[in-house]
Amino acid sequence: MTTFPVSSELERSLIARVPHQLLLADGWVDSADGSTFDVIDPSNGQVLAAVADARPADGEAALAAAHAAQPAWAATAPRERAEILRLAFELVTARSDDFALLMTLEMGKPLAESRGEVAYGAEFLRWFSEEAPRISGRYSTAPDGRNRLLVLKRPVGPSLLITPWNFPLAMATRKIAPAIAAGCTMVLKPAALTPLTALLLAETLREAGLPDGVLSVIPTSSAGAVTGPLITDSRLRKLSFTGSTEVGRRLIADSAHQVLKVSMELGGNAPFLVFDDADLDSAVDGAIAAKMRNGGEACVAANRFLVQRGISEAFTKAFTQRMAAVTVARGTEPHSTMGPLVDEATRQKVAALVQGAIEDGATVALGGRSLDGAGYFYEPTVLTDVPHTARILGEEIFGPVAPIVVFDTEDEAIGLANATEYGLVAFAFTRDLNRGLRLAEQIDSGMFGLNAGVVSNPAAPFGGVKQSGLGREGSVEGIDEYLETRYVGIADPFAG
Length: 496
Ligand code: SIN
What we know:
Layout lengths: L7 H10 L4 E3 L2 E3 L6 E6 L4 E7 L3 H19 L3 H17 L1 H12 L3 H21 L6 E4 L6 E8 L3 E4 L7 H13 L3 E4 L5 H13 L7 E3 L5 H9 L6 E5 L2 H11 L5 E5 L4 E5 L5 H13 L9 E7 H16 L19 H16 L3 E4 L14 E4 L16 E7 L2 H9 L6 E5 L3 H10 L4 E4 L18 E2 L4 H6 L2 E8 L6
Parallel strand pairs: 7-8, 7-10, 8-9, 10-11, 12-13, 12-17, 13-16, 15-16, 17-18
Antiparallel strand pairs: 1-2, 3-4, 5-6, 6-20, 11-19, 14-15
Helix pairs in contact: 2-8, 3-5, 3-6, 3-7, 4-5, 4-7, 5-6, 10-11
The protein binds succinic acid.
């Protein structure tokens, strides 16, 4: 493991080793017009690297490669695809230090969190290496006893994968691994803020044996211009997107042209409920994990703390103390427990939400300010006395800000938790198992953490209801997003 502190020489040599070009069927190439865009270190605003900036012609070339490679790739043995994934898992794990440092540099999270993401992201490769050989169908007799019904699973076909900046490795492997397992070819468009991790992952997958054309990677500063024509191109069959609900809605509408199979992991507004009977220490631990993982820049981050009146004072005091102990510093610093926000626009949005909450009547119990100096740092922030109607409760914060709202009854808490168009995840802390199960059944969310502040797990179906998305990633469900069902009707084999 890397010893601290990370030296800028180590950083420079890592950046120099990572591919900076597009990956197309011919290998690593410059963009069609030779243009590049800068990748910025959010901890100081300095340029880390210039990366090839895909143009529409590059997107077209990527899709052409995916389309050409699809038949041969679909015909490979599941075991062959499994072994590529398994080797990719080994290689990513062996390169944990490189992936972790790269993510810290381009996204900002502390190294310890980046290492956690490497383990999480690599696990999708291992999990789906185990799922590839288990793709199966069924053979049955029709109810009238005559015809036979054969049901097959087939790869859906060339897939466009659009990934976000907040988990640059794990969100890529969560899409790429099931697509490989299912036998789909892919075009990956990573976030422009964090393309380096995706480029290193692509190189690693090639080393693991992924054939040319199966995966293209097209970082671009012109997402709409490059991906728009692909989504309406009849060679594409699948779109998987992780990002905001606003963009997801537009992509779903665009996908209607070709009636694409879509998977959408969209925004969240997770309620975090603490009941009077909760274990205070574990509720505070869970709250810190749910709020501060990734500095709050996660769609599963706790967005609203709903705390029952009897425990509210003790919870607020203990939670605020823990938030005050968070050390804000560049993610490569040994003592850093929270890095910068990803860019200035994100920081300004967080600051505006806090200002709006104050105008709506909230009290700042901790933080509430951008930090002076270079980089996009924002203080861990706790807001109390937040009225039920405050605007911040309806918005995805994506930053280290915790609004606390007090409630009295279980019914009131459920009503507050469900008062949102989102439904990704909810968390609840209570010692009453029956209450926990009632909440799990009555709160509208795709995922529910019962006395747990983190639910993400490659073996679990990740995804939301309502405007938080469509489909599931990870688990046994994850591969279905890349498979379609084919039915073969067979005449009665015993009829003359
Ligand atoms: C996300 O925030 O987009 C995903 C987080 C996770 O997988 O835990």
